[in-house]
Amino acid sequence: MNDLTSFIRCEGNQVVARFRTAAAAMGRIPRIELHGKVVSAASVSFSIEGLAPWFRLGARLELQGPGDAPVAGEVVALRDGLATALAFAPLEGIGAGTVARLAPPAALGVDASWLGRVVDPLGRPLDGLGPLRPGADPRPLRAAPPPAGQRARLGPRLDLGVRVLDAFATCRRGQRLGLFAASGVGKSTLLAMLAANADCDVVVLGLVGERGRELREFLEDDLGPAGLARSVVICATSDSPALLRREAAYAAMAVAEHFAETGQRVLLLMDSVTRFAMALREIGLAAGEPPATRGYTPGVFAELPRLLERAGPRAEGNPGSITGLFTVLVEGDDHDEPVADAVRGILDGHVVLDRRIGEAGRYPAVDVLRSLSRTVPGCLSPEERALMLRARRILSLHAEMADLVRLGAYRAGTDPAVDEAILLAPRIEAMLAQGKGEPGTVEAAFAALAEALDGA
After folding, report:
1. What is its main location (predicted)?
2. Could you tell me which of 436, 399, 427, 446 has the C-alpha nearest to residue 159?
3. Residues 40-47: what's their mean pLDDT?
């Protein structure tokens, strides 16, 4: 028995020694590196040859430009043995013969220490506060939503902290709302109020194609230290390449998913889906897609639901959720333009900001009569629902009669309902006005609405 044990031990030592020798020999073998080269380049795209068998749509690349740092890119089309790619940085210095190497897939190592930080879509800090600590489990930027049949139902109603929304577009945890507005109507201020006042654990703010000059003003004046402390801000400014602007939306969603998977209540604010769609249009046109409605390519309308459906409740049994509020920049106050129309059909409700209301001095400039939350029937008591419907009827009647009253064509006492609307509509409008530093709850909003309607 002892001889057998000695024999096995001796043979085992020899096998281990042989493996070590083989490993050392393999380490001395020169590495084979797969790379292609640029054969043509334009202002935003370039073509690569030499890696056709390994190229896939969405594959990441690294170009060794004239500088020290490589330029990242992504394959957006494959045609005739060539790959068409776009870059995440300007293409100055990239020309025919530039070496292109395959890079690892896109992923973000999100960590809890990212709260209070401002980063770009590639996970690089923008706030000058030093490097970010990477998380242990990198999360892919593109992911499928939880299976529809296994996704949890919407949670209880959520205090957004904005009276007009809490009373007339009441939101549930895990719901997705669209904020539709033209430029300069107060979207950024409304987003800052939501980030500061909403009842949630984490705020993820995705700024897609924003003006670079306004980033610090928004963070310091609108969001403030308290709002930023529980937020992660993902930003790609308007001068960024289309790939980086598109990636800002994916990165914001990936960060929100990270915190939601740990059971936290996440409020995702994205400004704006329209600029995300514009970036997709640029990419699609560069890839050779045909332009369709208003120049938007078919891929835009296929990609919108893939992004927006990722928000919402998580899989059954996970208490985490992503409540999403997505702004839509309507061009020329046209609320039926293609992106607005597509997004309205995907989301669970829409909130319309009206320029005329803002010009009249009432902020947030939400048009109550054109705003709708599809989950209201499941989150209001019968008394609250009756109160909200009565206020809507009063505002609607007052809007219908406004011109007659203004011209003096209506005489008081002719119609009791109109008299009531003339009396109460200004009180409702006054209740809806709210400053940035005035937090609130759904209960407080309905109490203020009941007070405004009292004394009819």
Report:
1. cytoplasm
2. 446
3. 84
